């Protein structure tokens, strides 16, 4: 794979769109809602939001519906996913939601101080060690002074599901082969532990972490999602 090729681990197709929609439901539920509870009172005051690597648009279309005064831009590298997300916004008549095709590893094509909120979730699936500091510097540039950058990343869990344990053993190897893991022992993703330092290096002064847990036991919705990834890969 060439150095500049994108490294998202799953080929985009209709099954992947369906998987991303299910994944959104699992993560938004596990996180207790669209935004962290302590931030929710401030959301109605915000005017502009950018969602990075947005996928098929479930999260931001729910945000757009709930906060009609917020102008939302979703960006994703895949033009078919962007087309799908825009169609969803149009069907739901969400005039405050627009999309752009963008490879966020190559920079964010927006003015300085353009957004009150920048959101990114599960970006580890295509980021690498070289790209993280550059993306965080771009987030710092495009967020307004006093604005918020919300990043929700993933650290693997231990499961009693053979499927999930198998999937993760492959995932660690893949990430390591591509020099994308911050793991110290090849048994983790490592980005959650690195983000506070990387954010401070990028200039952010107030960095707050919130843990949340996803049940990945045998028989849970998370496992059927993992089983579908195995079939897609
Ligand atoms: C990494 S996940 C994020 C999903 C979404 N943020 C969520 O939380 O449900 C998958 C999305 O990342 C997109 N993606 C992969 N590489 C990208 C890149 N370099 N720039 C922007 N989006 C990218 C994929 O096209 C896919 O829609």
From TrEMBL:
InterPro entries: Methyltransf_25, SAM-dependent_MTases_sf. It holds the Pfam family Methyltransf_25. SUPFAM superfamilies: S-adenosyl-L-methionine-dependent methyltransferases (SSF53335). One of its GO terms (molecular function) is methyltransferase activity. Residues 50-147 form the Methyltransferase domain. It comes from the Bacteria. This is Methyltransferase domain-containing protein. The lineage of its organism: Bacteria, Bacillati, Chloroflexota, Ktedonobacteria, Ktedonobacterales.
């Amino acid at each position: 794979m060439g150095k500049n090729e994108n490294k998202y681990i799953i080929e985009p197709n209709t099954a992947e769109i369906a998987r991303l929609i299910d994944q959104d439901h699992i993560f938004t539920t596990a996180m207790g809602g669209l935004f962290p509870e302590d931030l929710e009172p401030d959301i109605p005051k915000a005017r502009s939001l950018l969602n990075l690597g947005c996928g098929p648009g479930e999260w931001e279309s729910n945000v757009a519906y709930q906060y009609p005064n917020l102008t939302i831009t979703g960006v994703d590298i895949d033009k078919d996913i962007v087309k799908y997300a825009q169609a969803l916004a149009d069907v739901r008549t969400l005039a405050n939601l627009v999309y752009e095709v963008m490879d966020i590893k190559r920079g964010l094509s927006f003015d300085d101080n353009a957004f009150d909120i920048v959101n990114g979730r599960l970006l580890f699936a295509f980021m690498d060690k070289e790209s993280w500091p550059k993306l965080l510097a771009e987030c710092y540039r495009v967020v307004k002074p006093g604005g918020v950058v919300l990043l929700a990343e993933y650290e693997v869990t231990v499961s009693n599901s053979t499927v999930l344990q198998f999937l993760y053993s492959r995932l660690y190897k893949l990430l390591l082969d591509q020099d994308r893991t911050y793991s110290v022992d090849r048994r983790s993703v490592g980005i959650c532990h690195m983000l506070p330092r990387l954010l401070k290096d990028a200039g952010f002064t107030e960095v707050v972490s919130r843990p949340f847990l996803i049940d990945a036991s045998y028989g849970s919705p998370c496992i059927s999602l993992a089983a579908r990834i195995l079939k897609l890969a």
